[in-house]
Amino acid sequence: MADLPDWFAASVIKGLYGTELKTIQVDELGRLYAILRALYGTTQKDVQCDASGNLTLNLKAQDLSEIINRPKYGAANQSLFSDVVAEGTDGTLLNVSGKGILYGGYINADSLVSKKTDYFFSLIDGVTFTSQTFYQLMYHGVTYPTSNIFQLMLYDDTNFKYSVCLMSGITFETSLKIVYHNASASGVSVYSKIFYALV
Amino acid sequence: MVELRGIIIDSPEGVRRVRLITRSERGDDYGTLEFPADLPLNWGQIIKFLGAHYGIEPGKIVCPSHIKIPEE
Questions:
Q1: Which domains does chain A have, with CATH numbers?
Q2: Nearest C-alpha in B relative to A199
Q3: Model pTM?
Q4: Which residue has the higher pLDDT, A74 or A58?
Q5: For an interface test with A, which of B4, B21, B24, B42 has the most A Cβ atoms less than 10 Å from its Cβ?
Q6: Predicted complex ipTM
Q7: What is the C-alpha to C-alpha distance for residues A7 and A4, in angstroms, rounded to an integer?
Q8: DSSP assignment letter at A55
Q9: A95 CB near a chain B CB, below 8 Å?
Q10: β-strands B17-24, A100-110: how paired?
Q11: B4-59 pLDDT, tens per residue?
Q12: Burial class of residue A41 in the structure, from the number of CB atoms within 10 Å of its CB (0-12 exposed, 13-18 middle, 19+ buried)
């Protein structure tokens, strides 16, 4: 203790191991470590950790009668589009970056001329899913949920009003984009409402 | 700490709109913020906007790698 002032009193802590006194030690930084032990029946076992120092927890060992768990639902949102999509162009109805789930939605098209050759496509995590045209959806009777990402709800090629809805439950990990393609030679008024959640 | 969870672009009434979805560190407190239309949509402006809105330093805003600025 030569480096300490002469009024400084050093103490040594000792602990009893059975009947023998042992000096309690610290590491080079002065930290006092303890080894955790637990009883397995009547045998003591060291509590261990992984390479990162994390203690693992075994829920089964706790004899839980049940574990309640639910998926993360995220924040509900709706997106709107209301605009004219010019002839021969794409109108992006929704463009999302994030993780989530599509609840559903609808897309209405209204025009002064036939739009039966117009169609949609969606990009889910960068993968393109193209729908059939309004006419093909009508001809093939694509009106049932899960038959297509877009299902026909209204096909009126006399008054030139068309409508589709979106399949629900589609999940996306990075992005979701919904696009209307105007394949004909005049503009079309498009209105959409799309419901989804971002986690 | 605030985490960005999504960037949404849509067009109600024919006008482009950008919204940012955020959540708190706790993870269940979501927020939706409309990004100013007069600002360019880039990471610098997003961080600056979120920092000013929540009154926190840029280092306390988490942007997960799967969130990209949507291509338009």
A1: 14-62 (no CATH), 75-198 (2.60.120.1390)
A2: B5
A3: 0.73
A4: A74
A5: B21
A6: 0.89
A7: 8
A8: B
A9: yes
A10: unpaired
A11: 999 999 999 899 999 999 998 777 789 999 999 999 999 999 999 999 999 999 88
A12: exposed
